[in-house]
Fold this protein.
Amino acid sequence: MRSKLEERVAEALDEEWLYEPGAYPYTIERKYTPDFVRENGDFDDDDWIEVKGYFRPGDTAKYKALRKDYPNARLMFCFSHPHKPVRKGAKLTMAQWAEKEGWEWTTPDAIEEEGI
């Protein structure tokens, strides 16, 4: 048991009740607004640019979910500091995370110099 309260409730329940016998998947419905969009005729096939200075908690999971829900959309990250850690204390940088996940990334300087 994870707490005295759970132990207390377990003692009060009969034997038919099982304690944490398994996990139940669930989905949290959210909406995503890309920073920049190049429309290609169908929302599912659009090109998106997400400008990031840092990742907030939950951001990396959000982008993985977007890939699952919009497999044909092209999402590119524009990192202000691509070699900054993904989160405090992490060794993996934002650019390394993007590459590991198969995402394209760039910087504002590269967009200004080369375009997209």
